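Suppose a classmate hands you a notebook page containing two proteins, each written out with its sequence and a corresponding row of structure tokens. How would you begin to make sense of it? This section walks through that situation. The first entry is reproduced here exactly as it would appear on such a page.
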Amino acid sequence: MDQDLTALASSRDRTLADLLRAGPIVPVITLERVEDAVPLARALVAGGLRLLEITLRTPAAADSAAAIIREVPEAIVGIGTVLTPKDLERAQALGARYALSPGATPDLLQAASRSAMPFIPGIATASELMAALAHGFQTVKFFPAVAAGGIPALKALAGPFPQARFCPTGGIDEKNVKDWLALPNVVAAGGSWICSTSDIRAQAWDTITAKAKQAVAAAQG
């Protein structure tokens, strides 16, 4: 990378590190109705989870993220399922604080490397991690975490890539999140178990707050 991109990467990393301190658990959220967005975010914040990932998987996603950003300032909103440079631009235009992807194409890595937006590209292999590192991204999303080799895979990657930090997502739940967070190269862990689609559809906000509190306790225990 040239000097300007190196400086941008350093600034982006510092900002992302500051955001991740609000973790270490990131609810992965899929919203089908905009009217559920604000009460869901408030329920999660009440349970101690401020760092949110709103996935771009539904037509309601962008408007839902915008509503949370506007009405729940305590929430730190990230946009997930960023697949293209246009998705990254969309996340930035919405006012998201950071963005994540399940993987990363060369075009997406290049666009993200030239953006000030904190970005967590997805990787599942050593080669994909090398591509992310080459573009200045030292914090990556390990996805799908369990299917891609689980905890043994991250332990193995720690050897040749001591500088890499991971946010595993995919197959993580209340039973194993503590084991993932115990790894020294894991800075946060993402999962949808805290706010399942069925709970959101039922508007079971108290249940979601309780699950959030349990997740925070599990992470700290």
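The notebook's second entry, a different protein, reads as follows.
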Amino acid sequence: MIDHAKFFKKITDSIVTVILYVLLLALIAGMLRILLDMRFVAVDSIEGGFHKIVTNVLTLFIVIEFFKTFADYSRHERIKLTLITDATILIVMREITVGLYSRSFGYETVFSLSALLLVLGVIRVLAVRYSPEKV
């Protein structure tokens, strides 16, 4: 008879392993992209090249956070709220930065994203303060 719990655990572990390798490839590709975009600083305007590099670096930080989340999940078989909150905070910060550089945001959007950042910050603080590991 098939032990369904073991079967599902093996499938889940396999999927997480594949995702970790995909994220590792994305990290390598992102680093290569940043190195290749350095030419835009010399050829294009410094502002345009700097915008591309900042955008790519912030995106790479998001991929790093997701990599840390999946690596932690593969070790502990649970997702920590702090890691997910960190990744979400980075995503919002990236969007704010990209929007401000491209000057495509109105003040309503900036205020909305800032309020979202505040809420995420409060969630992050509460997740650390009331962590199940501390209890």
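A careful reader of the second entry would note: Residues 56 and 70 are 21 Å apart (CA to CA).
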